[in-house]
Design goal:
This protein has about 270 residues and is an alpha+beta fold. Helices cover about 40% and strands about 20% of the residues. Its EC number is 5.2.1.8.
């Protein structure tokens, strides 16, 4: 009976998940460089609804990719780019289109992530998203060792403080144990490391990549340093080669492509 109950629960959960994914909208970016398709996330409702509304109004149609950086991202949609003269600096967005962020820890900046740009913290302390434009992650592929290094650098201040608490006061005692009782020394070191790791994991702002993140960043690629700073509200499903083509365009000193890459239309299905 319990087994049947468990099976029924799994069937119900699968049905709910299937329904949720079925309701996700698909966005098609038709550009002068090719077509990019992405799905919009349901659990980032404000960003998704604003994006859909702006796309339906044609706000992004005719705009340019105004900032493209290889191994980083491609950014477009800004209203000031529609009639921008060749070589003119543009892509400043529209602060009237800002909305509060909707950070979701389970979304991260893998290649193809669709996200909202924003102004810097000094003039935008609430980290509001500028929905007048968008960016798509290009990124680069990392090795596991490189990700380990990023974790080490980010967590070093937390680790140092924890070591001051759990290791430094017992340093002399541990040095004696290391000579006289190596087995007890090893046991104490394991205990200390366990406490330090616990402190790191419980401290806000720490960095420990999940298995999903590691798999994505070491295969597809991305920009892990952006995680937690921008709202991601969708991901590309088709047209990764178009992202590559746009990111590799020759550009000027302000990262605007020398040859205009125009967003012909953005449609939602």
């Amino acid at each position: 009976m319990k087994k049947l109950h468990f099976i029924l629960i799994n069937i119900m959960l699968s049905s709910v998940l299937a329904y949720c994914y079925a309701q996700e909208k698909t966005v098609t970016f038709t550009t002068s460089a090719g077509v990019i398709k992405a799905r919009l996330y349901n659990d980032v409702p404000n960003h998704t609804s604003v994006f859909i509304k702006k796309a339906a109004n044609g706000d992004y149609n005719g705009t340019l990719f105004t900032r493209v950086i290889k191994e980083f991202m491609i950014q477009g949609g800004s209203p000031d780019s529609k009639n921008a003269p060749a070589g003119a600096r543009c892509g400043f967005g529209d602060r009237r289109s800002e909305i509060l962020p909707e950070f979701r820890n389970h979304y991260f900046h893998k290649k193809g992530a669709l996200a909202a740009p924003r102004q810097n913290d000094d003039i935008n302390p609430k980290k509001k998203s500028d929905m007048s434009q968008f960016f798509i992650v290009h990124g680069k592929v990392y090795t596991d060792g490189a990700l380990d290094t990023l974790e080490l650098i980010k967590n070093q201040p937390i680790r140092r403080k924890a070591m001051d608490t759990y290791y430094k006061p017992f340093k002399t005692e541990l040095e004696i144990l290391k000579k006289d009782n190596p087995r007890e020394f090893n046991k104490r070191v394991v205990e200390i490391n366990s406490k330090v790791d616990s402190v790191i994991r419980s401290t806000p702002g720490h960095l420990i990549f999940t298995e999903e993140q590691r798999k994505a960043y070491t295969t597809l690629g991305g920009c892990p340093h952006l995680d937690g700073f921008y709202t991601i509200y969708g991901e590309v499903t088709e047209g990764f080669e178009v992202i590559d083509a746009i990111a590799n365009q020759p550009k000027d000193a302000y990262d605007r492509p020398k040859k205009d890459i125009r967003i012909i239309k953005v449609t939602i299905q």
